[in-house]
Write a structure and sequence with these properties.
There is one protein chain. The protein has 9 helices and 16 strands. Strands 1, 4, 7, 8, 10, 13, 14 and 15 form an 8-stranded mixed β-sheet that branches. It has a two-stranded antiparallel ribbon with strand order 2-3. Strands 5-6 form a two-stranded antiparallel ribbon.
Length: 257
C-alpha cells in the first residue's frame, strides 16, 4: 500500500529541537525518527511514501535529495560540479514523494491535499513522530475483515509514573514507568479506504477532531488493539527515552535489519 506520513506540524512541545528542524527530523541513533518509521513500513514491503510537508519542509527535502550521497563514498570534481559515487551504498529502494501541504494546514487538510496522489485504493497513514512494533500485516488483515472506512491502531501509552504494590505499609513491588498505561488512545498507524476523503472538507479539517469523530459516530472506524510497544516523541523526555533504548540495543521498534 501507499503510505502517507504527516510531517508538517510545528512540534511546539519539543522546542529544544524543533526551533531549527521539523520534529520528524529529530534524530534517534543518528537517524531522523522519520527514517525509523519508514524502515518499519519498508520491512513489511510498503515502499512508496507520501510525506505531507509543512513547517521547515526544505530540511526534509534536503535529507532525501542527498540521501544516497551522504551514505556513500564520493569523488567530487569541484571545477565541473560533478560527483561520482563509489562502491555499494546504503540507499533504500523507496519512492518518496515530498508534497508541500501548507504551513498552516491541519492534519485532515494535509491528507485531503494528497487525494489526487493516492488514487482509488486503500492506503496507510501515520504521524511523523511515533514509533511502534505493530505488525502491519495483521493490521491490514484486520482492516479488511472489518469492512469499514478506516482503522486506527489503538495503544496503551507508557504510564507517566512508576507503580507500587503494598502489603500493609511495606512496599512489595516497585515498577519504573511500565509500558502499559491506563486506557486506549489513538496511536496512528491508520488504514483508510478512499471514502475517507468524503470526511475531509478543507485545510482546516482536523483528522482527529473532525473526520475520525464523524467516522466513529457513523460506525465506520475500527480500532486495532496493539498491546505491545508504542512511543510518541512529544517532549525532550520522550526523545531521551527513545535514544536510550536505541543506544542500549533495546529498541522494540527496530524489527528491521
Amino acid at each position: 500500500m501507499k503510505v502517507v506520513i504527516l510531517a508538517g506540524g510545528l512540534g511546539t512541545r519539543l522546542t529544544e529541537e524543533t526551533e531549527v528542524k521539523p520534529k520528524p527530523m529529530v534524530e534517534i541513533g543518528g537517524r531522523p525518527i522519520l527514517w525509523h518509521i519508514m524502515k518499519h513500513y519498508s520491512h513489511y514491503g510498503h515502499k512508496e511514501f507520501f510525506i505531507a510537508l509543512g513547517y521547515k519542509s526544505e530540511i526534509i527535502k534536503h535529507f532525501f535529495i542527498n540521501y544516497t550521497a551522504f551514505s556513500s563514498s564520493l569523488t567530487v570534481d569541484l571545477l565541473k560540479g560533478h560527483f561520482q559515487i563509489h562502491g555499494e551504498n546504503e540507499s533504500e529502494d523507496w519512492i518518496v514523494h515530498l508534497i508541500d501541504t501548507g504551513k498552516e494546514t491541519s492534519t485532515g487538510g494535509r491528507l485531503k491535499r494528497l487525494q489526487k496522489w493516492l488514487g482509488n485504493e486503500p492506503f496507510m497513514v501515520t504521524y511523523g513522530d511515533g514509533v511502534s512494533n505493530v505488525d502491519l500485516d495483521k493490521l491490514i488483515q484486520f482492516h479488511k475483515t472489518q469492512g469499514l472506512t478506516g482503522t486506527l491502531t489503538a495503544v496503551r501509552p507508557p504510564a507517566r509514573f512508576g507503580g507500587l504494590s503494598f502489603e500493609g505499609n511495606s512496599i512489595t513491588r516497585f515498577t519504573e514507568k511500565p509500558q502499559i498505561g491506563e486506557g486506549w488512545v489513538n496511536g496512528g498507524f491508520f488504514v483508510f479506504e478512499p471514502k475517507i476523503f468524503n470526511y475531509l472538507k478543507d485545510d482546516q479539517t482536523i483528522l482527529e477532531a473532525h473526520a475520525m469523530e464523524k467516522l466513529a459516530s457513523d460506525r465506520q472506524l475500527a480500532g486495532y488493539r496493539h498491546e505491545d510497544f508504542w512511543q510518541c516523541m512529544d517532549t525532550l523526555r520522550d526523545k531521551k527515552l527513545l535514544e536510550e533504548l536505541w543506544q542500549t540495543g533495546k529498541a522494540p521498534w527496530k524489527i528491521y535489519p
